[in-house]
Every structure is written in structure tokens, then in C-alpha cells.
Amino acid sequence: TYISRLATICELDENGIVRRRLQQSEWKHIHEDPNGVIFLGGSDYAKKLMAILAIIYHYTYLHKAHQKVTGQIQRRYNGKGLPTIVKNTIASCIPCLRSKAYRGLNYVSRSVQALATRSIWQVCGADIVGPYQRDETNGSTTTSYKRHILVVHDAITSFTCARILQDASSQS
Q1: Which pTM was predicted?
Q2: What are the phi and psi torsion angles at 80 (to 5°)?
Q3: What is the per-residue pLDDT for 85?
Q4: Domain 2-92 indexed as CATH 2.60.60
Q5: Phi/psi of residue 165, each to 5°?
Q6: How far apart are CA 148 and CA 128, in angstroms?
Q7: Looking at residue 114, what is its pLDDT?
Q8: Separation between Cα atoms, residue 11 and residue 35, nearest integer Å
Q9: How far apart are CA 164 and CA 145, in angstroms?
Q10: Mean pLDDT of each 10-residue bin along the chain, 172 residues long
Q11: In the chain, where does the domain assigned CATH 1.10.340 lie?
Q12: CB burial class (10 A; 0-12, 13-18, 19+) of residue 169?
């Protein structure tokens, strides 16, 4: 069972905290506590706690990538699915998204602080796609419409919006 497997790798310390024993493969890693890392588990509460830890460490270490944040968290804590939770949490960081979009436009600067944008929709692109022909039948007559699609893309959040434009061509 899950509890018996957990008992082989974890132990309770004198304060009642569940700690994960260091495995031989982990001896090369640097841990801040010689008693082992704190095991958070895999419950929904633990996942939310790991997401909060990811946010704190991400801002503390000045917007480092998810691999480095995961490494810093694993020096002290361990939990089921920790790398995935950290990656998904950091993926929605607005300053990092801005920096990523800015780096796509300017290859020289890689600093989060050097951004010209301050909010979403400041770096966006628009394009008209088409024409797409659409035939509509009205009783015995068939009318052909040429439709175009307006596509707007925000470079900061990668949000894309599309709308169908009405046929503006003359009927004569």
C-alpha cells in the first residue's frame, strides 16, 4: 500500500514533521537540513502549498527558470509532482511572459527590467486572412460570399482572437 511504501522512505522527526530520508542517488545533491527534506505529500493541499512555494522562490530568486526554482525548493522540500507544479505555476508569471515576448523582438536585451511594455496588449499584431468563399442557398438561388478573418495576437500573453469580417465587396 501507499503507507507502507511511504514508510520505507520517510520518517517522523522529533517535531512530528514527515521527512524524506536521503536516498543514495541523492547524496550528490545539496540539502539545507542534514535530517532530510520535508515531505509534503501529494494531496490537493500539498499541491497548493507547492505552488505557493514556487511563487515565493521564483520571486525571491529574481524570476529564475523553473528548473532552477525546482532545484532550490528540492533542497528543503519534496512532494509528488513538484517539478510539474513548479513549471505550470511559473508559466503564468506576467513579468516573465513580457520578457519572453520582448526577447523575441529584441535579441540584445535579456533583462526583465529593460522592458518597454508595462501591460498586456501593448505588443500585438493583426492580420486579415482570406478570402474564404462561402455559398449560401436561398430557395432556388445560390449566393457566394467572400469572407475574411481578422486575427489579433498579443505577444505578451500569446492570446489570439479571431473574428469573421462581413463581405464588403460590391454586388454589381
Answers
A1: 0.53
A2: -70, 125
A3: 95
A4: no
A5: -95, 145
A6: 6
A7: 47
A8: 10
A9: 12
A10: 72 79 59 74 90 91 89 87 93 84 61 54 79 76 79 80 77 58
A11: 2-92
A12: exposed
